[in-house]
Input
Amino acid sequence: MSLFEQAERKNLSRAKPLAARLRPRKLDEFVGQQHILGAGKLLRRLVNSDRLGSVIFFGPPGTGKTSLARVLATETKRSFEQLSAIMHGVKDLRAVLQSARDRLATGGRGTLLFIDEIHRFNRAQQDALLADVEEGVVTLIGATTSNPFFAVNGALISRSTIFQFEPLSTEDVALLLSTAIHDRDRGLGGLNIQFQKNAIEHLAQVCDGDARQALCVLESACLSLGDQGMLTLETIREAIAHRAMQYDVSGDEHYDCASALIKSIRGSDPDAGIYWLARMLEGGEDVRFLCRRLIILASEDIGNADPAALPLAVACSQACEQIGLPECQLTLAQTVAYLACADKSNAATVAINSARADIQNGRILTVPMHLKDGHYQGSKQLGHGEGYQYSHDSDQGVVAQDYLGVDREYYKPVDRGHERAIAKRLDIIRKTLRKGKLDGAS
Output
């Protein structure tokens, strides 16, 4: 290759974004995901034994799904074909599959087919893959940011091994940034730019474990300086000021953050609760959804341990409806903090679940005669209401009377908050009611 051709190739390489130029060329250069790629881990063993089958990579953007697919094609000596479910359709897919068959028929290498955003293929498009995946015509690697158990055809999942990618650690991102800074051929090492250590450390911490985002911010910040200068903390902060936060109001992030919010409040951690609330608000979450979840939690996880929780959650919903964002974030934060610090009880939740389970399992009780409606004409001839005792006629407001027909306790107050007092009161009540059951039995 001539010097001119070498220079031309280098210029073409430089035209690519920094994140693309720094893609790992072999498995040892790949950074992160050691829970699936570390020594002795399943994916590493499959590659080392050359038994890699079809897999699905599931995880957030910028965690290495595409890069690892390319590396695996090299490591397993397969031809690499890439499609995007956003840009390509069944016609493109069938063309690639036919090429893979022709390659095998002529004694060529096997094919690793990488499909990015595979969850965006409809059912018919995903079905078109099944036969060739089953017969081993292609080794499929599907990448998705959505939970594959919800977004990918069950038949395709059953033929694949699923590997979940995690956001990169701060240390992993810092390593990639260091490589980008010092690599003279593919990175920024050829520029006359000095880098402040605290600027790189800050970028590694705030990029949400997204390597692509970190490298794009670094490149943007360097380009703003020209070929020389000092990359400071302020330069990095300016470059990331308008970065997009990873949050999909209709996808996994929505459900995962909602789950984290509820579990933090249930676990009595107001700080975590406030953080997940802020994360959802920053991501554009529907305030009405947040209010509904808080109202449900007030009954499900706090109940009568703090009877003020439910009215507060309802008031929060009404206030948010009236004032809207941004001001209603104050009401939401107040409510989350209160609910997190409130005494907790799921006694009402357990009670209704137990009662419904009895009914669903066939325990259908007949309404006792003395509790049946006795207000309509002719009801007395049927004996409805006969023997009913009016509770307010008793000095205690409770009479010895059977209201169920069987001896069953569903509601069991916990020994916390207001339910501690309810438990003491209920113990007295049930002793009185039990006399009514015994009298009825006799």
